[in-house]
Amino acid sequence: MSKLLQQIAPSPDLLVSSPARRAIDTAAFFAEAYQVPFPSIVQEPALYEASAMDLMRVISQLPETARVVFLFGHNPGLTEFVNQFTNQPFINIPTCGVVLLESTALNWRALYEENTNVEQYWFPKTSLQ
């Protein structure tokens, strides 16, 4: 998925991951694909078992200098979070599924349902065939 995304999505300004081993390992694949040094991955403990509201809190505190952020976390919180921004909800975002959100918000604190939407998504079973 990291190599696929590297070909079609912009480079991240910031990678933020849950400290869980699988999330960090996944973030490392994306860091390698985008040539981001592994130590640059920010480990955020609040992402572990985060609810949609917890995710929104973490996102609201992201630095304004980061325009493109890759977030690595866990379900069910990620699916619940993403479903706030679409009229066609996902039942479950699979492991290593990628969802691209785009927003017209002026800063991370201003991100909400009316100014943000799901633009694209890629799931391993459907995107890597």
Brief overview:
This protein has one domain: Rossmann fold, CATH 3.40.50.1240. Helices cover 31% and strands 18% of the residues. It is built from 5 helices and 5 strands, in the order αβαβαβαββα.
Q: How is this structure best described in words?
A:
31% of the residues lie in helices and 18% in strands. The longest helix is centred in the first third of the chain and has 13 residues, at 21-33. By secondary structure, the protein is an alpha/beta fold. It has one domain: Rossmann fold, CATH 3.40.50.1240.
| Class inferred from helices and paired strands | alpha/beta
Task: Categorize the overall geometry.
Answer: globular
Per CATH, the class reads Alpha Beta
This entry's quaternary arrangement is: single chain
What is the CATH topology assignment? Rossmann fold
Question: Averaging pLDDT over every residue, what do you get?
Answer: 93
CATH H level, superfamily name: Phosphoglycerate mutase-like
Radius of gyration: 14 Å
- What's the β-strand tally? 5
